[in-house]
Amino acid sequence: MRVTLKVWRQASTDAEGRLVTYDVDDVSPDMSFLEMLDVLNERLILDGEDPVAFDSDCREGICGMCGLMINGEAHGPQVTTTCQLHMRSFADGDTITIEPWRATAFPVLKDLVVDRSAFDRIIQAGGFVSVNTGAAPDAHAVLVPKDDVDQAFAAAACIGCGACVAACPNASGMLFMGAKVTHLGLLPQGQPERDHRVVAMVAQHDAEGFGGCTNIGECAAACPKEIPMDVISWLNKDLRTAMRHHH
To answer: Is residue 120 predicted with pLDDT exceeding 80?
Structure first.
């Protein structure tokens, strides 16, 4: 395969960015998208040019580091992480535009790398439990309804990649935040701080510059872990309850 890439190049957060065109030959359909970028970078290094900066770590669809906008879609044309997207999803001769996540709360550091520490600060605000659970209890020591367990487990699958923010026209982080609130709010260990958690996390979300949710649904459609929009409803319900308790 031969593909033409239009890659966003930006030297730093304060620098002007632009799309730069590269032709990449001898691309195997079995390559992952990141392996194709590795091939491009090897060529750039040999030519004495600055390689394209992009994030990756596990390359197994687990860590969420590899997020890219590919032809205007978060993670590309398949509902998966970028590292698990393969070049067989494209045709020989295709032109592929590659950009970083676009959100005020995710400033570009260099090229395709963005600063997602806003997510970390949301977690620090309330996405934890501080109750001392001691040693690991027996599995049946605390009874939790099966439906709650299943819903909490599904919400806990969120890897914090930021695709929901990138796909949302409002750049909202509500799906990410809803997943964390739902996960902890359904479990007994998450109850003592339930009200404080949702109020603190929503306040931090807004302070970071994320937009509001208008229920468009692009977040859930782009999520590689298929987190449902139900978690946003759960978050809103918890927030209303917490505000009633506060007042």
So the answer is: yes
